[in-house]
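Task 17 of the worksheet. Students: predict the tertiary structure of the chain below and write it out as structure tokens. Keep your answer in the requested format; marks are given for formatting as well as content.
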Amino acid sequence: MANAGLQLLGYTLASLGFLGLIASTAMAEWKMSSYAGDNIITAQAMYEGLWRSCVYQSTGQMQCKVYDSLLQLPGEVQAARGFMITSIFLCCVGLLVAAVGMKCTTCLSDNKEQKNKVALAGGVLFIIADMVCALVATSWYGENIRKKFFDPFTPTNARYEFGKALYVGWGASALTLIGGSMLCCNCGSKPAGKSYPPPRAAGRPGTDHV
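Model answer:
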């Protein structure tokens, strides 16, 4: 029961990470205009995401515009789109695979070894979706923001800082990684005891049959 509970906890954390990755991908606050400097006009705030850019006025109004052309987007935006979509797809497949291999489900209940392997495959999918896709996308995008911010040739009013979507993406990546690792570590557990065949009954002396 303890192993099943740990497995369920890992699945829950990975599911929360999956939802966080979807939210991060859809959010428009991947980077926000910086207020560093003395000549910054704070009457409006600019946000840019993977799919649209928004301008928030000091009056409380927000106007958003979807990007017109994919080919005109910077390379980090195109790459982040591809990585995040791939990450979401792998997490979706990982949820289905891990659900089949979990001990609290009845699928493959007659073959415990095969069931553990399926759960292990689901955990590996979560780790791949996080380490290879989501974490690469958010870290690469954040590194480009940092480089341009400290570039002396970047105008002060064109500098951006980390947006909320990056922090959501990093948090979701951590949950997905922890959940996938718990699924992988829990799959190798086997019953402690060994089963032996019952002892054969010894025949009574003098009862041998010819």
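Marker's comment: The two ends are 53 Å apart (CA to CA). The chain is about 55% helix and 10% strand.
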